[in-house]
Amino acid sequence: MADYVLAIDQGTTSTRAIVFDHSGLIVETGQIEHEQIFPKAGWVEHDANEIWRNTREVVGLALTRANLTFRDIVAVGITNQRETAVVWDRTTGQPVYNAIVWQDTRTQKIADDLGALGGGADRYKDKVGLPLATYFSGPKVKWILDNVDGAREKAERGDLLFGNTDAWVVWNMTGGADGGIHVTDPTNASRTMLMNLDTLSWNEEIAADMGIPMSMLPEIRSSSEVYGHGREGGMVPGVPIAGILGDQQAATFGQACFEVGNAKNTYGTGNFMLLNTGTEPILSKNGLLTTVGYKIGDQPTVYALEGSIAVSGSLVQWLRDNLGLISSAPEIEKLAATVEDNGGAYFVPAFSGLFAPYWRSDARGALVGLTRYVNKGHIARAVLEATAFQTREVLDAMNADSGVDLTELKVDGGMVANETLMQFQADILGVPVIRPKVAETTALGAAYAAGIAVGFWNGEQDVIDNWAEDKRWTPSMDDAERDRQYRLWKKAVTKTLDWVDEDVK
Ligand SMILES: Nc1ncnc2c1ncn2[C@@H]1O[C@H](COP(=O)(O)OP(=O)(O)O)[C@@H](O)[C@H]1O
Ligand SMILES: O=P(O)(O)OC[C@H](O)CO
To answer: What pLDDT was estimated at residue 503?
Structure first.
C-alpha cells in the first residue's frame, strides 16, 4: 500500500526531492545544486536540461535512501522557482535557450518599452496584479523570441512551448515529446504577467503586446488535482502527478496560512513574504504584488499580497563566493558574533535592482557608513541585517495595504537556521518570529497539494493539525533603537537609487 507522498522542489540554487509520511514529516531527501550561469552583468541563466537531469536523479536518491520504490508513492507534488522562463521545442524536447532566471535584469528595455505604450509601469497592474519589471516571465519569453535565431518563426508555427520550471518538469515527467502534458497552476501563471487575476485565464491582449503566441502557453489547471501520471520507464511510472504550487505559495500552504491575515516569510536565495487576503484580490498601493495564493480543485481561489525581496541568502553566498570572507553560509553567524553591532555599516544588496516595495531597476548595491573602524565582522552583521530590514519594509507595506496588523510572523527557508538573524528580525519588526518543526515548508506545501488531490489527506485541517512550532524569538530591542536603525537603513537605500543609466553597464 502506498503510504508516502513525494515532493519535488525545483529551486533557484538546487533541486530537491523529499518523501513525506502521513504526519507531514520528512522521511528522506535528495538534493543536487545546478550551475548558476552569469553570461553578463545582470544576466542569470540555468541549463534546463541540467535541471531535468537533476530532477530525475534526486527522485532516485530520495527513494533509495528511504528504501522505497515508486509503488510506495501515492502522489507527486511539484513546487518551483517561479518566473524563471523555459522555452522549448515540442518535437525535439530541447530548450531553444537557457532558462532565463527570475533575478535576470536583461528585460529592462522591454519592460520600459511596454510601459511606453501607455500606462507606464502600472500598464497591466489592474489585470495581473504586477508592475512592469524585469522579474516576471512574459518579457523574458519575448526576449527569447526576439533574440534566438528562428525562435519567433517556430513559435508562430506552434512548435515552441513555454513554461516556468514547473511546466518543464511536469511535461518531461509525463512523457516529454512523447505525449507529455503541458500544464501549470494559477500560482505560477500569476507570475508571468499574462494571466487575468480574476478569471485565471490567459490575457490575449497582453500576450499580443509581448508578441507571444497563445499556442506556447500551458493550460492553467488548479493547484491540486491529478494532471497526469509518471511516464512508463520514468522514475515514478503510473504515479499521479497531482499538485503544482510556486515555491512561495507552497510554503504559505505548508505553513497552514489558511485564514485571512495569516502570513509567512521564506528566507532562501531571496525573501518572500505572503499574506493571505482571502477570495478577492487586493491591489497594492504600497509596492506589493497581488498574486494567487492557491486554488485547491474546484474550491474558490485564495489570493495573497506578496513582498518579494530579490537578494537575501544570495548575499551570504556572495560573501562566501565573491569575497571569500566565509567558507560556508552558516559560518557567517560566527563572523557576525565577533562584533557587538554593525559598526555603522549598512549593506543594501540591490544586485538585481530593488524589488518590493520600491521596484527600482535602476538601483545597484551599496555598502555605506564605512569608516576605518569597520571590519569583516561588521560587514557580516550588515549582510544579515539587510535581510531583516528589507523584511521590515515589506511588513510595513503589508500593514498599510491590508489594514492587518501582523502580531507574529511564521518563518522558514535556509536562513532561519541563523539565530542571530532571527533575533534581529524579531527586534526590528517588534513582533515574535516563529519557526515550525518542519522547516522544509515549500516541499511540504506541494506534498499536501498532491496528497489532498488523491484523498491521502482530507484537506486543510490535516495541514493545520500537522503543523508544530519549533522555536520563537521575541523582540528585545527598545523602540528608540529600533527606530534609529530603521531610519539609517532607509537612508542607505536612497544611496542605491538612480545608479544605472546609459553609461553604466
Ligand atoms: N546559517 C545560515 N546563515 C545565513 N544564511 C544561510 C544559512 N544557511 C543557509 N543560508 C542561505 O540560505 C540560502 C539557501 O536557502 P534555501 O531555502 O535552500 O534557498 P533556495 O530554496 O532559494 O534555493 C542560501 O542563499 C544560503 O546562503
Ligand atoms: O527558489 P527560491 O526559493 O529562491 O524562490 C524563488 C522565487 O520563487 C522567485 O520568485
So the answer is: 55
Cβ atoms 186, 292 nearer than 8 A: yes
Tens digit of pLDDT for each residue in 473-484? Answer: 999 999 999 999
Mean pLDDT of 53-57: 98
SS (H, E, C) 339-393: CCCCCCCEEECCECEECCCCCECCCCCEEECCCCCCCHHHHHHHHHHHHHHHHHH
Cα 313 to ligand 2 centre (Å): 11
Task: Provide the H-helix boundaries in 117-175.
Answer: 125-128, 137-147, 151-156, 165-173
Q: Which amino acid is at 30?
A: G
Ligand 1 neighbour 13 (Cβ under 6 A): yes
Fold of 4-248: Nucleotidyltransferase; domain 5 (3.30.420)
pLDDT score of 10: 97
The tens digit of pLDDT for each residue in 245-294 reads: 999 999 999 999 999 988 999 999 899 999 999 999 999 999 999 999 99
Q: Does the annotation list 392 as a binding residue?
A: no
Asked if the domains 4-248 and 256-436+468-500 are classified in one and the same CATH topology, the answer is yes
How far apart are alpha carbons 470 and 289 in whole angstroms? 30
Work out which ligand 1 atom sits closest to the CA atom of 333: 3
Closest by CA position to 252, among listed 271, 269, 243, 265: 265
Q: How confident is the model at residue 324 (pLDDT cuts 50, 70, 90)?
A: very high
Looking at domain 256-436+468-500, its CATH class is alpha beta
Residue-range domain boundaries for the chain: 4-248, 256-436+468-500
**What integer is the mean pLDDT of 23-35?**
95
Residue appearing with cell numbers 500500500: 1
Bridge pairing between strands 263-267 and 409-412: parallel
Residues with Cβ within 8 Å of 431's Cβ and at least 6 positions away in sequence, in order, are 406, 407, 408, 409, 475
SS3 468: coil
Position 405 scores a pLDDT of: 81
103 lines ligand 1 (CB under 6 A): no
Task: Name the average pLDDT for the chain.
Answer: 95
Interior angle at CA 152, CA 150 and CA 155, nearest 5: 110
Amino acid sitting at position 443: A
CA of 418 to the centre of ligand 1 (A): 9
**Closest listed residue to residue 310, CA positions, set 377, 365, 264, 262:** 365
| Ligand (nearest to CA of 274) | 2
Tell whether pTM > 0.95. no
Q: Per-residue pLDDT tens for 92-102? A: 999 999 999 99
